[in-house]
Amino acid sequence: GLDMDEIAWLTMAMAETGDMLDIDRKPIMDVHSIGGVPGNKTNVLVVPIVAATGLTIPKTSSRAITSAAGTADVVEVLAPVTHSLDEIKRIVEKIGACLVWGGALNLAPADDLTIKAERALSIDPRGLMLASIMSKKYAMGSQYVLIDIPTGEGVKVETIEEARSLAKDFIELGKRLGQYVETAITYGGQPIGHTVGPALEAKEALETIMTGKGPGSLVEKATGLAGILLEMGGVAPAGMGKKMAKEILESGKAYEKLKEIIAEQGGDPNIKPDDIPIGDKTYTFVAQTSGYVTKIDNKAIATIARAAGAPEDKGAGILLHVKVGEKVKEGDPLFTIHAESEVRLDQAIIHARRMEPIRIEGMVLQRIGNI
Amino acid sequence: GLDMDEIAWLTMAMAETGDMLDIDRKPIMDVHSIGGVPGNKTNVLVVPIVAATGLTIPKTSSRAITSAAGTADVVEVLAPVTHSLDEIKRIVEKIGACLVWGGALNLAPADDLTIKAERALSIDPRGLMLASIMSKKYAMGSQYVLIDIPTGEGVKVETIEEARSLAKDFIELGKRLGQYVETAITYGGQPIGHTVGPALEAKEALETIMTGKGPGSLVEKATGLAGILLEMGGVAPAGMGKKMAKEILESGKAYEKLKEIIAEQGGDPNIKPDDIPIGDKTYTFVAQTSGYVTKIDNKAIATIARAAGAPEDKGAGILLHVKVGEKVKEGDPLFTIHAESEVRLDQAIIHARRMEPIRIEGMVLQRIGNI
C-alpha cells in the first residue's frame, strides 16, 4: 500500500488536476460521512445548524452509487443541486452554506479515473478512499473537516477498532494537507431515522428541522456532529457544542438557514413536508410473530429500496415503522415499501420476501426437541 | 472427558445413592434452567401454569451459589421450601405441583461429593454438569424434562452454537435415562424482568401472575417455556402451547394454582405484593448522559445485588428502571439498589460506581480529534 506521505501527495495532485474553490469567508468548515448506513439524511440538518452560527460550510455531496440515496439525491427533492463553481462561490459568500452535488464540478477530476484504474488493480483501497475524499475537501478549501465514520453490522466499517484506525489515517492525512480534521465514530448498526429513499428522507429531514423534533437517531446524530463542528470552529466552548446545536435546531434558526439555501439554489423555500410527492404504490410487511426487534439489516433495506426504484425514482423507498429494541405484536406493521410503479413495487416485494430485513425474536430463541 | 454412555451410568449411579420420589400421577413433567441470567424468576410462573392444566410438575430448585437469587430463595419469600420427600409426595399427589428446595432432600447425594472431588481435578466439567442436573431429575421420576439454556453475553453459554451443542448432549443423555428431553435456547443477554434479588423477584412474579401482565421478557419467557411443556405433556396441540399458556396466565388459573402451592407448603396464600418487605435502604443511579441503553451487564448486576446482601438478606437486590434498547435522558433513573442495612448499601454503591452495569450510548460513539 501507499504510505501516508504518498497518500498526501496523491491527494494534492488529484485536487490540482481540477478547479479549486476560493471562498472569501474564513474559517471554512466541512463534514463528510464515509457512508454505508441507510437513511443518513443527517447532513441536511448539520449544514444549516452550523451555518446558522455564521460559520461557512460549502457542502458538496455525492449521489447514491450502491446506496438508496446520497445526500445530493435527498437535497434535490428540495432544490436544484447542480451548480457551477462560480455560482457556489456566490451562494456561499452570501449565506455561508450550500448543499450541492459535487459530481457536477470539476473537483479533483483525476480522482474518478485514478480510482477506476487502481480499483481494477486492487491497489490500496484504503489509501485511495482517503485520497478521494480528502482531495475534494482540499479543492473546496476546507480548513476544518469532520469525518463521520458509521460503524456497525452491515456498514463499511464493522468494528470500533477498524474505525479508530481509519480515524487516525484521516487525521494524519489532514495534517499533511494543512487541514484540521476530527472524526466521529457513529452508530451505524441500523438505518438513521425511519426513512430510506430520496423523497421520504427529504420529508423526514424537513419535518425535523421545521419542528425541531424527530427520530432520536436523526436528531442525536445531527446535533452530535454539528456540535463537534461548532467547537472546532470556535463558536461553542468545549463540551457545549451539542447543546448549542440542539438549541439552534429547536429555535427554528436552522430551518431559516435551510430556507435560504433552498432559495439561493433555486428551490421553493416555503415547501412543506406534505408537498413532497411520495411513491403511492405501497406494500406493508407485518410481524409474523410477537417479540422484540433484534436486528434491522442495513444491506437488505438498501437492496429493497433500490429494487423499489430509489434513487432514480425519487418517491421510492422504505418507511420503517419500528427500530431495534422495540416490542411488536403479531400483525403490527414493520415497514412500508413505496414505489412509483407497480412493476418496481413487485420487484421490491420479491426481494423483501426473500431477505429478512427486520428480525423479530421472542425470549425463546430456539426449541430443540427430538434429534 | 467422559463419553455419553459413561455420563449416563454416572447419572444413574448418582441418583441411586439417594432417595427416589415415586409419585402416583403420570406423566411427570420437569423444567430446569442451567442458570446464569439474573432475575430469572420464570419458573415461579411456569410451574403453576403447567399444573393448572392437570399435568404433574414436582419442581425442586437450588438456592443461589454465585447468583443473587436461586428459584428456592425467591419462592421462600412466599412459602417454606424445606420439605421431606414424603411431604412433597403428599403435596404433589394432591395438587400436582410443588416449588421446593432440592438441597433439603437426599436426592443424588453422591452428586455434591463427586462434583467437589472431580471439579478440583478439572475432569470433564460439562459431563459433570449434565450428570448433576439430570441425576436429580431422574431421582424425581421426571419423564418429560425441559432444559432452559439462557444464551448471551455474560451468562454461562455465550453463543447459539455452544447452546446447540449442549442441547444435543442433554437430549442424548435423556434418551439413555428413558426421559424425553427438550431444550429451549432463551435470550439471556440481560436480566429477566426488572428485578434481581429474592424479595424483589418474588414481588414481581406475584404481581405478574395475579394480573396476568408483567415485563415482556418475563411473560414471554414463562409462557414460551410453559407452552413447550404443555405440548410435550400432550395437553396442547403442536404450535398452540404458548397461546394456551398465555390464556392460563391471563385467566387467573395459574394464580389459583400458585395459591394452592403456597398454602400446601405452609405459606399465606393470600399474600399480596405489597406485603412483601423490600430493603428500605436505597440508592438510585441516574444516567450521566442522554442516549440509548446498549448493554446491561449480567455479571455486574449480580455482583452489586450480592454486595447489597442478596440472597441472605431477602430484601436486598436491584430494581432496573430501564432495559436494553430504551432511550434515556440525562438524569433519568437507571437502577435502584435496595439493601437491609446501610453498610451493605454502601458496599453495593462502591461496586456499582466501579463497574458500568448499564451502558448508555448516544449516536456519536467516540470523537477522535488531535492525536
TrEMBL record, chains A, B:
Domain Pyrimidine nucleoside phosphorylase C-terminal: 292-359
Keywords: Glycosyltransferase, Transferase
Protein EC: 2.4.2.57
Enzyme class per UniProt: transferase
BP terms from Gene Ontology: AMP catabolic process; pyrimidine deoxyribonucleoside metabolic process; pyrimidine nucleobase metabolic process
Keyword Glycosyltransferase assigned: yes
Keyword Chloroplast belongs to the record: no
Cellular component terms per the entry's GO annotation: cytosol
SUPFAM superfamilies from the UniProt entry: Nucleoside phosphorylase/phosphoribosyltransferase catalytic domain (SSF52418), Pyrimidine nucleoside phosphorylase C-terminal domain (SSF54680)
Gene3D superfamilies registered for this protein in UniProt: 1.20.970.50, Nucleoside phosphorylase/phosphoribosyltransferase catalytic domain (3.40.1030.10), Pyrimidine nucleoside phosphorylase-like, C-terminal domain (3.90.1170.30)
InterPro entries associated with the record: AMP_phosphorylase, Glycosyl_Trfase_fam3, Nuc_phospho_transferase, PYNP-like_C_sf, PYNP_C, Pyrmidine_PPase_CS, Thymidine/AMP_Pase, Thymidine/pyrmidine_PPase
A Pfam cross-reference name: PYNP_C
Gene Ontology terms, MF aspect: 1,4-alpha-oligoglucan phosphorylase activity; pentosyltransferase activity
Protein name according to UniProt: AMP phosphorylase
Taxonomic classification: Archaea, Methanobacteriati, Methanobacteriota, Thermococci, Thermococcales
